[in-house]
């Protein structure tokens, strides 16, 4: 069965929904066994790329598993992605999406912009359903205030 | 038992060295005084020399004493600092945080200055100014600059301040072998702007009783009897500085650390050394990564935190990648510990904002200057009180005496 572009786009959006819901298992179910997750940002101050997270699937699972033991910002994040480019070749697709992440205060419900950037996703197309093989979150925003423990 | 207002606002039955009036974290008048008596007098760590490696390379810095500065490496390789302002009409000379120039050229009227601060061009100088204004008199304002203690660039607005070495004294001697083993290189720089007081966030580096905030530090240190955690000692130094003794961090005890065996020249394996410099600089070497915190107070309840991570200039790409990974575990904006520190400090900023009727802040733990002793905070506030001419436990005593005399 061939995976089409719409299914690839829906995979990107589905990952956002799962992450918004803090459904970590649901998110990982959308990822390949060889999944890699990376967050980086370019610092104009030192003219250098900074890698703030770089984890394979096992590390992501352990990272998520330890979350309940940590003190984490309780205010929820909402991810908004817009798929711009899908380049399908063989059993892979390279996908570029714009990303905005909002934070909504539990107390009062005010929403503020938390971060902007892009998803650079690699999607596996074999096996009948698209799976996220790698996600590179390239952030334009570098001042994230008090930050977060959660994947974007 | 809960307390009524009078009980809540009563001074603790402790020596005044062991508590602080919350106004020192929120009063705008005291903050203005801090600018005059502290920020414009002390040496600030503005950047690292690796951030301007070549002649003409520059970095900008918002000085806590309210000055926009630019550090630049000269054609003679010397690092100089100037006010980032054109002496013609007061415009910013450079708008980007870093770059490389032959001359600084103001966008407004194209006045140009070389990297030694000399004015080298004024468009249509003679027709407009004749002999009344001369380039030689219109150089940039230079700021005292020293490079040292691991290649950091330090600046001081006070032309009459003691030397950098004199101000730091022996506080950094404990880390000098690691800082000066070989050239360093900044690989992370980022900021976080928080609604809190700079002294509150600096406290998170001055007392480790708050390791109860960090499950990571409990698992990898506090709960490990052989780690030396409870034997770590604070050593106070003159001018408000302090160091924290090393320990052996059990990184393997925490799942998903992804940490390697990578270390640092001269630092014992899995070691961790830390030095706090007054008023808000922390030099923190944790096994494979050197983290530098420098805070820029903007207002009593507003601070820009600058975070740097450094490795060795000689790092291979593989080693550098591992250092980044090690740093990311706890210190990136997604890191296990930093997020928790910033949450707690921001919570203090919210809860102790001006007008919120906060209580006196305790720093009363005494445990023979070991890791849960709050001697670091007491030592810090003793220096704050000395410089301000006010007790941190009773900052308005001077005004009360003055009022009574009147």
Can you characterise this structure?
Chain A has about 150 residues and is of the alpha+beta class. The longest helix of chain A is centred in the N-terminal third of the chain and has 16 residues, at about 5-20. The model of chain A has no long low-confidence stretch (mean pLDDT about 95). Chain A has helices at about 5-20, 25-30, 55-65; strands at about 30-45, 50-55, 75-90, 90-105, 110-125, 130-140. By secondary structure, chain B is an alpha+beta fold. Chain B has eleven helices and 19 strands. The interface of A and B includes residues 41, 53 and 142 of A.
Main beta sheet strand tally, sense and closure of chain A = 6 strands, mixed
Estimated helix fraction of chain B: 25-40%
Mean pLDDT of chain B: 95
- The sequence of SSEs of chain B as H and E is HEHEEEEEEEEHEEHHEHHEEEEEEHHEHH
Please give the radius of gyration of chain B in angstroms. 23 Å
Helix and strand element order of chain A: HHEEHEEEE
* Assembly state: heterodimer
Structural class of chain B: alpha+beta
Number of strands of chain A: 6
Task: Give unreliable regions of chain B as ranges.
Answer: none
* Percent range for β-strand residues of chain B: 25-35%
The share of residues in helices of chain A is 10-25%
Strand order of the largest sheet of chain B: 2-11-10-5-4-3-6
Q: Name the pair of protein chains with the most residues at their interface, and give those residue counts.
A: A-B, 34 and 37 residues
